[in-house]
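sorry for the late reply, my laptop died twice this morning and i had to redo everyting from scratch. anyway the thing you sent over, i finally got around to it. pasting the sequence first so we're on the same page, its 209 residues, then the predicted structure underneath. double check i copied it right bc i was rushing
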Amino acid sequence: MEKSVICADLFYLPPIEFFVAIHDADQLILAGGDRYQKQTYRNRAHIRLANKVESLSIPVIGGNKKVKYREIKIDYKQKWKNVHLRGIRSAYGKAPFFEYFFPYFEAIYDKNIDNLYDLNFELLTLCLKLMKVKTKVLIGSNEEEYSSCEDLRRIIVAKEPFEQRNIYEPKPYAQLFGLDFVPNLSIIDLLFCEGPMAHEIISQSKKKK
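ok and here's the structure:
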């Protein structure tokens, strides 16, 4: 049986749509040689607070299209880490699975990883582990590696509504705040709220073609 291989961009605490897109893949190849782009999921994620959806953004040093993504450094002179951890605690501290999962995330933040790419890779690896996803994850090094995969690079973009893409059909789950379900938040929203059921909800959220 031929293996399913997907190529994709690496994001910060990716949106649920990303995990729906890679759900059936035997192997995930992450773009490793691309240039950095601002205002993307590479350095921002969305969580739900009591009164609004909040964007968590990681400040970077000298981020522009001339610099490779894997060379982008995180700006720790700005107190973003405290803001993110405080925001996550405020949003999900009372979620059913927060006390089980949060220490794993906090341990990664406490490493003060220099490179944005490396931080995102560790967080993605953790999310896949918590959901018991067995997809093998590799980092691509040249265009030849992407020639035989389902190429999702530059497809999942923050500036476009997910409804425009043929990937994600929201499967509502119990969120902490508000009466209306908010789709496609960061994967941590689903993990903290649903725990072991996260994988099943993702499998049910694939848009029928």
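Helices lie at 16-22, 80-92, 98-109, 116-130, 187-194, 198-203.
thats about all i looked at so far, will dig more tmrw
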